[in-house]
Specification:
By secondary structure, the protein is mainly α. It folds into two domains: about 45 residues, no CATH class; about 40 residues. Helices cover about 70% and strands about 0% of the residues. It has six helices and no strands. Helix 1 runs antiparallel to helix 2. InterPro entries: Zinc_finger_SWIM.
Length: about 100
């Protein structure tokens, strides 16, 4: 787990070298295209800029979705989901 951008780049450099020496440029290309382009969504050193109460997993998000489903039911239309989601998010933010 990389806690800084410098550490991430060190590990990435080793990964890239391993891919090149193992003739697996396809793996590196896949990573570069699909994962390296969205570091703020998953890399710990990027995500630490956002409040998470120390939780680095998605279980808080899943919990929120389950709460919405309990309140709204499983057959609610997308516009009602979006409205409820925005209201719920405003409530969560007001608690911070």
């Amino acid at each position: 787990i990389s806690s800084t951008g410098v550490r991430f780049e060190q590990i990435y450099s080793k990964f890239a070298t391993c891919c090149e020496t193992g003739h697996r440029e396809d793996v590196k290309n896949y990573f570069d295209k699909n994962w390296k382009t969205c570091l703020p969504m998953w890399a710990n050193f990027e995500r630490s800029k956002c409040f998470s109460a120390g939780n680095t997993t998605t279980n808080r998000i899943e919990s929120n979705w389950n709460q919405l489903k309990m309140v709204l039911g499983k057959r609610t239309s997308i516009d009602k989901y979006v409205s409820a989601l925005l209201q719920h998010q405003a409530h969560v933010l007001s608690q911070i």
